[in-house]
């Protein structure tokens, strides 16, 4: 019987030969195995096919009952692993915090399981009447936000 651990071990061995990293492995109730990988420079279809062939060879006849999907973590999908955060430092992101509040800003840094986003807020400077936009850093724990994802900008 194929287990998630079997699949993960094979994937991680394959990943050691390149710059890719594992994002997620799902084994669904309808006998599908879904493997998501990512890379700072993007994922090539040829590499997904190579990983798929490796899984097919290593799992052999046991794979017969399963549908195997190997692909990249979607560009507009929420981040699932720390490396995705690191790859997007300096990019615009959207964060939905634990309370469901949405904010956008620049992913400034990642430190362990914490990350900082620089947002712009209107504040009234002392002695002034009109508010001005100022940069404000907000730090979050990856395990406590509902989601963080890269904001695609077509400008």
Structure description:
Helices cover 21% and strands 38% of the residues. With 155 residues, it is of the alpha+beta class. The strands form 2 sheets. Strands 7-6-5-4-8 form a 5-stranded antiparallel sheet. The protein has a 3-stranded mixed sheet with strand order 1-2-3, with helices on one face. A hairpin with an 8-residue loop joins β6 (114-123) and β7 (132-141). The N and C termini lie far apart (49 Å).
Strand pairing plus helix content: what structural class?
Answer: alpha+beta
Estimated radius of gyration: 20 Å
Give the strand order of the largest sheet, numbering strands 1, 2, ... along the chain.
Answer: 7-6-5-4-8
Number of strands: 8
**Head-to-tail CA distance between termini:** 49 Å
Unreliable parts = none
Give the topology string: H per helix, E per strand: HEEHEHEEEEE
Largest sheet: 5 strands, antiparallel
Mean pLDDT level = 92
Percent helix: 10-25%
Query: What overall form do the CA principal axes indicate?
Result: elongated
* Tally of separate helices: 3
